[in-house]
Design a protein that fits this description.
This protein is an alpha/beta fold. The protein is built from 9 helices and 7 strands. Helices cover 38% and strands 23% of the residues. It is globular and about 60 Å long.
């Protein structure tokens, strides 16, 4: 099953599904990057602005250009906060609308596996970043790394399918990321794995948050009967036991990579 790219056009639904986990992972990602303050930054594939806001809070850049191909996501991001140093615009990471060497750093958050030609996108990031500048990304680690992975496991256990094909699945592994960065001519390439706790206040919060939008891990639900949806819900409730306070707890994981633009 291929991924419908239109699932990422609802900024509010994406916020409930993924915003808080993007911020939590993004905070750890930025700590690993350890960038100096006052940089000119690019957030490529900014979605609804969750990582952009995290970058502003923890990275203290001088300015940020944030781009995404989905007009609705950009509109949502613009509506959340009016921040003078951020410029949002609709654009494609594979064909960036910027001159060469205009940024000190560029990053993509939870995007790279959805890009049809990630090598082209990384080449574009390297092109618009100045000599010695940083190019980095992080992406959920495959089938079991995403915050909604219990749904994928439930689909497999119940025989509902649930397998989905991202445009560039190899790009979410550390090996795949390293190959892309080295292929773009970036230097001092490093990778790491980031894990985060995923917590919902109760099972209803877990269910409603994860089904707020037809994300790749739950697209299989579109073809289920009401009876099968009830089976799915029951399986998940049994397999995700709540703690003493009623919370649902598990972990998610992402891979990350960083490298420097060669000095010309």
């Amino acid at each position: 099953m291929s991924v419908d790219q239109k699932i990422f056009t609802n900024g509010a639904a994406y916020e409930r599904l993924m915003g808080q986990w993007s911020r939590l992972t993004g905070t750890k990602f930025l700590a690993w990057l350890d960038m100096p303050k006052g940089l000119r930054g690019l957030d490529a594939g900014c979605g609804n602005g969750a990582f952009t806001e995290t970058l502003l809070e923890h990275g203290a850049p001088a300015s940020v250009d944030a781009i995404d191909p989905a007009e609705a996501q950009i509109a949502y991001a613009k509506a959340q906060k009016s921040v003078a140093q951020v410029k949002y615009q609709v654009a494609d990471a594979q064909a960036l609308p910027f001159d060469n060497a205009v940024f000190d750093a560029a990053a993509m958050a939870l995007v790279i596996s959805f890009i049809p030609d990630p090598a082209k996108a990384i080449g574009e990031l390297a092109r618009v970043v100045c000599e010695g500048g940083l190019v980095a990304t992080y992406m959920w680690d495959g089938f079991d790394g995403v915050p909604v992975s219990p749904f994928s496991r439930a689909a497999k256990a119940l025989g509902f399918g649930g397998e989905y094909a991202l445009p560039s699945p190899e790009a979410d592994t550390q090996a795949g990321m390293r190959a892309l960065w080295q292929g773009a001519g970036l230097e001092a390439v490093e990778t790491c794995r980031i894990t985060i706790p995923v917590t919902f206040k109760d099972f209803d919060d877990f269910w409603q948050s994860c089904t707020a939008m037809p994300n790749p891990a739950i697209q299989f639900m579109r073809g289920l009967s009401d009876a099968d949806v009830k089976r799915l819900r029951a399986w998940l409730q049994d397999s995700q036991p709540a703690d003493a306070a009623g919370r649902i707890n598990y972990t998610a994981a992402a891979n990350a990579v960083k490298g420097r633009v060669k000095r010309r």
